[in-house]
Design goal:
Layout (H helix, E strand, L loop, with lengths): L11 E5 L5 E5 L6 E2 L1 H8 L3 H14 L4 H4 E5 L5 E6 H10 L3 H20 L7 E2 L3 E2 L1
Antiparallel strand pairs: 1-2, 3-5, 4-5, 6-7
Helix pairs in contact: 1-2, 2-4, 4-5
Length: 132
């Protein structure tokens, strides 16, 4: 199967366990892109809750669809939309679950551990144009 339609070859995903431990799986040389189903497992919410959050983020106009959404064919022959790390981060701040909180803490830990190695500035864009 060509790489442009092989979902394993073209992306990584983020998973969490029942204790809130986060890990990235898949091809480490590729970007993180996840389906709605994978996002619902990551944040422990229903797929409709993920769809509602994605619609709200898209409606805000912060991102353009071509930047944050791709349509791919999965290994099983079905096709699915996948969403970039930008949507994943934005969703984590819209959802109020233990797993969303764990993801945010993991993300902050990654940013802070890298900043001790080199100086860098990080800005998070939060809904309605507020940034911190």
């Amino acid at each position: 199967m060509p790489e442009h339609i092989n979902s394993i070859a073209m992306r990584r995903i983020i998973k969490t366990d029942e204790n809130g431990n986060i890990r990235s799986t898949g091809n480490p040389a590729k970007e993180i892109w996840m389906t709605e189903w994978e996002l619902s497992e990551l944040f422990n919410v229903s797929v409709p809750a993920i769809q509602k959050g994605i619609r709200a983020i898209r409606k805000s106009g912060i991102y353009t669809d071509y930047e944050v959404c791709k349509y791919i064919r999965m290994e099983n022959g079905c096709s699915a939309d996948i969403f970039s790390i930008d949507i994943i981060i934005a969703l984590s701040y819209r959802l109020k679950t233990f797993y969303a909180h764990s993801f945010r803490e993991w993300l902050k830990g990654k940013v802070l551990s890298e900043s001790t190695q080199k100086n860098s500035a990080v800005f998070f864009l939060i809904d309605k144009g507020y940034s911190c």
